[in-house]
Amino acid sequence: MQARRIARELALLSISQLPAKPERLTTQKLQDLVVAAVRTLATEARDALEAAAAELQRSNAQLLKSETRATDVESAREILRDTIELTQNAINRVGSAIEIPEFIQLTNQPDVRNYAVEIITRMVSEREDIDARLQSALVDWQLNRLARIDQDILRMAIVDMVYLGIDQRVAINEAVELAKRYSGEDGHRFINGVLRRVTDQQHAGSKPN
Residue 53 and residue 58: Cα distance in Å, rounded? Predict the structure, then answer.
């Protein structure tokens, strides 16, 4: 995992905890938000493993049921299909959970936390300009009508591209990956389209309204 990629995810998790008047934030409060985000991840990992264990128990019960209650081949197949689905869900949960300890360990690196804090700080201080750039690129949409997570991912990408000097393609790809993890089913496509319009406007020399 790259430090900046982890910092972006950490920033995204922290942003959701911003107070109503974020302009009053101090560096210490931002650091506290980051720590809270790490704790949230640890809780998610524990919950995912507990859910996986429960699904494996239900899977085992389904297998026993197929042996004792299946009256014909088709009913046995149906029970087995349910068993496989439960097992797959458990495997997926474990797979996502085992990545989190590494993530948490890397978030303890000063450069990771500092970059996350810098992203949040820029989002707060440059909010008006960021939102103007995004609203200019939105077609038949209002920024404040988007899902909160999509708003935050879009704003972070603008911070990367405009204020932190990250290559536009890298910033867009990182935003898309965050959307795949945290947004809705088609959120990553929508975010990709909006950010590409932002870069097109920049290349064309247009200014946000």
Answer: 9
The answer, yes or no, to whether residue 77 has pLDDT greater than 90, is no
Same domain, 150 and 103: no
DSSP 139: S
Please give the structure tokens belonging to residue 92: 């997926």
Q: pLDDT of 11-55, one tens digit each?
A: 888 887 776 666 566 666 667 777 777 777 667 666 766 776 776
Residue 16 lies in a domain: yes
Does residue 209 lie in a domain region?
no
| Other Cβ atoms within 10 Å of 117 Cβ, number | 20
Tell me the CA distances in angstroms from 182 to 9, 28, 132, one per residue in order.
Answer: 10, 27, 24
> Hey, how many other C-beta atoms are within 10 angstroms of the C-beta on 78?
13
